[in-house]
Specification:
Layout: E1 8-10, E2 14-16, E3 20-24, H1 29-38, E4 43-48, E5 59-63, H2 69-83, E6 86-87, E7 89-92, H3 105-122, E8 126-127, E9 129-135, H4 159-172, E10 179-185, E11 187-189, H5 196-206, E12 214-215, E13 225-227, H6 228-240, E14 249-253, H7 261-273, E15 280-281, H8 284-297, H9 319-325, H10 333-346, H11 348-354
Parallel strand pairs: 3-4, 3-7, 4-5, 6-8, 7-9, 9-10, 10-14, 11-13, 12-15
Antiparallel strand pairs: 1-2
Length: 357
């Protein structure tokens, strides 16, 4: 039956097709929530690896191994049989990401080569738009008070952002087949945290770890973040405005204000203990020795290679998102922090589980 299987009525007697959207990484934090929002207006297919976790019930789950071309081909054949050849949008969220090591072969196998193999299969479909979730970490860090726009210098210092740069280059090669949009996304969080750096920073203070009082970078520098709901809104607006967007457009998605490490330390400390949390700057060589020692005796979140990144500063210019998508964030990390800490204090075990601590 192909695409004639699923139809819906509109205005009583007129029958229309819902357009099809593919979401890779459909069981992840972003993909799962995005599907639930998109399912009201689209038919959603969630592409993900075999086994739990699974995408929400609103999407058909099609398993595939993005590193295996035959597996991708079989998944796409299933989509062609069930939904036809036309795809309104492909939202590519699937990626490997880890703080365990500075470099990892999976950055190449999944993020770069996996995307290349996936795009190769998509050429045989009538795809209107391909949306890629990239990262703001690929930019060269800046001084406090400056802004990073989409034309700012690129300078990735470790495997994850470097893989995103190379994947963006791969995607550009396929722009002749369908419109491509690169969303350079800041660190994502929600009311439970769900941000690896943020949740670990909170954990250190909550458990009164000695390391919570020391930092080897500039205390007045910070990273850019974006609330999950704001990111979902940006992706949806990107789909809605696909006919207006130019080919291969790059758009920053994040909050215009980046709280400094010191601001976050102060905020977290006051919310948990009602008082100022003292933080002292230490030399990087001491921090590296400390990180090395902690990883000899255990599996500390802080790795020696991270010390060189401490104090890097990212502040995003989001004027292009405002202009092209009519988008700007409604939330901020500092305003959301009370809710994150409230959820921690209400049920620490649940909070730790959600943040995989």
């Amino acid at each position: 039956m192909g695409v004639d299987i699923i139809k819906h009525k509109k205005n009583g007697d007129r029958i229309q097709q819902k357009e099809v959207i593919l979401v890779t990484g459909s069981s992840g934090l972003i993909g799962f929530s995005l599907i639930q929002k998109l399912a009201k207006n689209y038919r959603i297919v969630g592409l993900d690896r075999v086994g739990p976790p699974y995408p929400p019930l609103e999407a058909e789950c099609v398993n595939f191994d993005i590193t295996n071309e035959e597996s991708i081909a079989m998944a796409m054949e299933r989509i062609r049989y069930g939904y036809g050849n036309k795809i309104a949008a492909v939202i590519h969220l699937a990626a490997f990401y880890s703080f365990k090591t500075k470099e990892n072969d999976l950055y190449n196998e999944i993020n770069i080569e996996g995307t290349h193999k996936f795009l190769s299969q998509l050429r045989d479909f009538d795809v209107k738009q391909f949306i890629f979730s990239s990262t703001d970490l690929l930019y060269k860090p800046i001084n406090r008070g400056q802004k990073i726009d989409e034309n700012s210098p690129i300078n990735a210092s470790w495997g994850y952002p470097r893989s995103k740069i190379l994947t963006e280059d791969v995607i550009k090669q396929y722009n002749q087949y369908f419109k491509t949009v690169i969303l350079r996304v800041a660190g994502v969080y929600n009311e439970y945290g769900h941000s690896i750096p943020i949740s670990n920073q909170i954990k250190r203070i909550y458990e009164k770890e000695p390391t919570s009082h020391f930092y080897s970078g500039n205390l007045n520098h910070g990273d850019a973040y974006v609330h999950l709901e704001d990111l979902l809104s940006a992706i949806i607006k990107t789909i809605e405005k696909q006919n207006e967007l130019k080919d291969h457009i790059i758009i920053n998605i994040g909050e215009p204000y980046s709280p400094s490490y010191k601001e976050l330390q102060t905020k977290i400390g006051k919310l948990i203990y009602g008082k100022q949390w003292k933080t002292y700057k230490i030399p990087k060589w001491i921090a590296k020795i400390g990180a090395w020692g902690m990883n000899i005796t255990g599996d500390s979140f802080i790795k020696p290679w991270m010390i060189n990144r401490a104090g890097e500063n990212y502040e995003l210019d989001i004027n292009r998102a405002k202009e092209l998508l009519d988008w700007e964030p409604k939330n901020s990390l500092l305003e959301t922090m009370p809710f994150i800490i409230k959820n921690l204090r209400a049920n620490p075990a649940k909070w730790y589980t959600k943040n995989k601590l």
